[in-house]
Prior knowledge:
The chain has 3 helices and 4 strands, in the order E-H-E-E-H-H-E. By secondary structure, it is of the alpha+beta class.
Amino acid sequence: MDGKFGLVVTFVxxxxxxxxFDESVRELVSAVHEYEPDALVFACHAIEGRVGQRLxxxxxxxxxxxxxxxxxxxxxxxxxxxxxxxxxVQVDFLELLDAKGV
Length: 102
């Protein structure tokens, strides 16, 4: 769909690190909202029944917007802190075929 670029990231958190990770995510999402107009959707979800897991869904206007996201100071700060709280990460890149609301 017009070059949109997306990904899903699944985080398995270290036990007891849920609150600290969630606070770091709140700061990241706030900065993405303020400074990244080409991040069309940037959402973090708790997964029902899986206390120690979080799922990010990210949709960007294009690949260049995703690449720009990676160079932002707020993203670099999040990534530097992430390993303190995360046991494992899985990233799946997506090709948007169709959607409502974007």
